[in-house]
Amino acid sequence: MQTAMDAELRRLLETLYDEGVRNDVHEQERQRKLLNLEPETAHFLSVLVMSGRRTRLLEIGTSNGYSTIWLAWAAQATGGRIVSIDREAAKQEQAIANLQRAELGDLVELRCGDATELVANLSGPFDFVFFDADRFSAPAQLALLLPKLTGDVLLCADNVHSHPDEIAGYLQTIEALTEFEHMVIPVGKGLSLAYRTTANG
Ligand SMILES: C[S@@+](CC[C@H](N)C(=O)[O-])C[C@H]1O[C@@H](n2cnc3c(N)ncnc32)[C@H](O)[C@@H]1O
User: Fold this and answer.
1) Contact in structure between 132 and 167 (CB atoms under 8 Å)
2) Distance 35 CA to ligand 1 centre (A)
């Protein structure tokens, strides 16, 4: 398993992140902001995927594919694949181009549309889910996903510290799922991790 990122991919990710920050400073329209994950959070997620040998990944909130590239890089090491959802077609066009630049496009299935509607029609199963879209609809997506998760599964959600009010419903839902071990990691904007394992995996 190859776990060291090559210099070219690292440079591409740095370039994308810098471009995203510059875009978001100047862009007035929220739906055109890229809102990329902090690099340390994205790196941490990729380590979780690799160390947990996660292979069936779902990302809700693709944007231009910055975090998707990190996840796909990790999935390449585990032999995994990713489904990633965003409702903004223009951003997913950018994600397609960026994933091609990263030579990771083959590992990613991009779906365009409202996440709750799309999640309802996904068959799964998923052993890793990253919630990074609008935090209000995450509880509904989680409810739809529960029957589509493997026994051994890791659920991640960003913005616990940056948007505590918006993510409160998701955190309450997670806390009510007593089979999950839940914690918040103080990385980036605050990352919620919920882990469940069962005997039959
Ligand atoms: C924080 S950004 C995702 C950033 C991305 N994960 C990254 O790090 O590069 C949130 C994205 O979720 C999308 N989004 C928000 N609400 C959504 C919904 N209900 N369904 C689908 N996509 C949604 C937005 O268009 C936006 O691109």
Assistant:
1) no
2) 8
Query: In which element (H, E) is residue 131 found?
Result: strand 126-131
Q: Is 0.90 topped by the overall pTM? A: yes
Instruction: Indicate the residue type of 103.
Output: E
Among candidate residues 109, 81, 94, the one with its CA nearest the CA of residue 36: 94
Protein residues with CB under 6 Å of any ligand 1 atom: 35-37, 61, 63, 66-67, 85-88, 91, 114-115, 132-134, 137
Residue of 15, 43, 63 best suited for mutating to test ligand 1, as the one with most atoms within 8 Å of CB? 63
**Architecture of the structural domain at 7-196:** 3-Layer(aba) Sandwich (3.40)
200 Cα: distance to centroid of ligand 1 (angstroms): 33
- The confidence band for 4, taking pLDDT boundaries of 50, 70 and 90, is confident
